[in-house]
Amino acid sequence: MAPNNPSRVIVVTDAWYPQTNGVVVHVDALCRAVERQGVQVDILHPGLFPRTILPQYPEIELATTPWHLSAHGDFAQVDFVHVPTEGPLGIAARFLCGRRNICFSTAVHTKFPEYAQILAGIPVSWGYSFLKWFHRPAHVTLVQTNSQRQELSERGFPHLQVLGSGVDTERFRVMSHSPRTEPVLLFVGRVSKEKNIQAFLDLAIPATKVVVGDGPDLTRLTKLYPMVEFRGYRFGEELVAEYANANVLVFPSLTDTFGLTAVEAMACGTPVAAYPVTGPLDLVEEGITGSVNDDLAVAVQTALQLNRDRVREQSLRFSWDNIALNFLAAHQGR
């Protein structure tokens, strides 16, 4: 049973640095925001264990001895455990908390079943059966948007609660850029099939197309689209500059649960064009911070007309400190 005012929590995550993805950014920012509330946060991650590379994702390393989890954290002196991933460490944490009757929460950050179907041909129903098994014993399962909660509820997931996600609006900010003869359309994220990047690359719009990110589909797409600027990963101020220099962030994914890059772009004053799916539907204010449309080209043309100052203004509602308070409140009385 977690106390009303927790003083120490353990976060067990399979996604951690040096991985570069939205889950890592979310977990890291959430932990730092919770610490600002005066709570001690211990993070148990693959870097503490012997590791092996995940096939097709060489930048992702998984712990090979997750059963040693208790040796890396004092689970006897913890108020609750948070498990944001369903990998080897997440599964080990699930069993450990069950055996010791420790309050724990989980989170659904990705559409894992859809990814598994796209990348490996695994039936979506199998993936959701696994996810329901994994999350069922948690005291609460945190999701990022209302539409994600609705989707999972319809699939039979219990005890769902919307947490949301945030953005560092001091780091991600408006920056000046040079005049240009044509607009710059930007994609930021993993260069992989599940991100539906070709829908962006195939847009018949006079524009400079820029891809920031890396992944298993990079070599193939670089050859197919020689006129596109593939810039690899960008970090820190270089990443902020990419967002701020773009006229529109194009978010073509059909399988994301939130869309952290969309919020980061908005904080830089850059509107978002996307499909009307989970994530963008919850984040994009039509005609204000971007546009969603079944025709991605129409969404881009609408987004190009929007006021960047207003886009930035609306992004300020994504506060990590508010997310941290929501996170702690979700565990009170458990």
Produce a short descriptive summary.
The protein is of the alpha/beta class and 334 residues long. Helices cover 36% and strands 17% of the residues.
- Integer average pLDDT: 92
How can the largest sheet be summarized? 6 strands, parallel
Number of continuous helical runs: 13
- Briefly note the structural class of the backbone: alpha/beta
- Distance from N terminus to C terminus (CA atoms, Å) equals 5 Å
Characterise this structure.
The chain has 334 residues and is of the alpha/beta class. The protein is 36% helix and 17% strand. The chain has a 6-stranded parallel β-sheet with strand order 2-1-5-6-7-8, with helices on both faces. Strands 11-10-9-12-13-14 form a 6-stranded parallel β-sheet, with helices on both faces.
Topology:
Blueprint: E1 8-12, H1 22-35, E2 40-44, E3 51-54, E4 57-63, E5 80-83, H2 88-100, E6 104-107, H3 112-120, H4 124-135, E7 140-143, H5 146-154, E8 160-162, E9 184-188, H6 197-201, E10 208-212, H7 218-224, E11 229-230, H8 236-245, E12 248-251, H9 260-267, E13 272-274, H10 280-283, E14 290-292, H11 296-303, H12 308-315, H13 320-331
Parallel strand pairs: 1-2, 1-5, 5-6, 6-7, 7-8, 9-10, 9-12, 10-11, 12-13, 13-14
Antiparallel strand pairs: 3-4
